[in-house]
């Protein structure tokens, strides 16, 4: 069994929804090391409520302000370091969700999420969504991961596929696995289960 990191090409592309779908599809646990803001509605709560048997690994840091983790931590009077992000010793098959994109900073000393991905040595699923500018954001993210020799498990499109965009991705990364998860309008265990089933079917 493998664990995976889920990252996005930016904010609001559906990382938590995709994480829930992957947890359901793979019967995996879920861990989001840092939650910044919205502490009354944690991403882990969403995943727990909309999956059938996912075990939630508690976040290492809960920050009070909905902003970049490095600044949210500073406002809370703490500094995040690599030592805060050791993979849990009891890690089994787990979906590890990042925040924002690969270059989101965790402290003022230059630590970014991509540094953690490299440290963890887990394959990474990149979540994208088709919008004007998404090709640029997607290629930048994929290239950043490749430059660090971080394994890319695949590109997951949240929403409808777009052949014109995906043709470009394959021109740069011929072996890239591209799958889609249909955009979900009403979240429930049933809708996540259905999306998980459709995602699994694309792997064969």
From TrEMBL:
Family matches, as SUPFAM superfamilies: P-loop containing nucleoside triphosphate hydrolases
Catalytic activity of the protein: (7R,8S)-8-amino-7-(carboxyamino)nonanoate + ATP = (4R,5S)-dethiobiotin + ADP + phosphate + H(+); (7R,8S)-7,8-diammoniononanoate + CO2 + ATP = (4R,5S)-dethiobiotin + ADP + phosphate + 3 H(+)
Keyword Magnesium found: yes
Entry-linked InterPro entries: DTB_synth_BioD, P-loop_NTPase
Needed cofactors: Mg(2+)
UniProt keyword list: ATP-binding, Biotin biosynthesis, Cytoplasm, Ligase, Magnesium, Metal-binding, Nucleotide-binding
Top-level taxon: Bacteria
The protein's role, per its UniProt record: Catalyzes a mechanistically unusual reaction, the ATP-dependent insertion of CO2 between the N7 and N8 nitrogen atoms of 7,8-diaminopelargonic acid (DAPA, also called 7,8-diammoniononanoate) to form a ureido ring.
Subunit structure: Homodimer.
HAMAP family: BioD
Family to which the UniProt record says this protein belongs: Belongs to the dethiobiotin synthetase family.
Name listed for the protein in its UniProt record: ATP-dependent dethiobiotin synthetase BioD
Species the sequence originates in: Fluviicola chungangensis
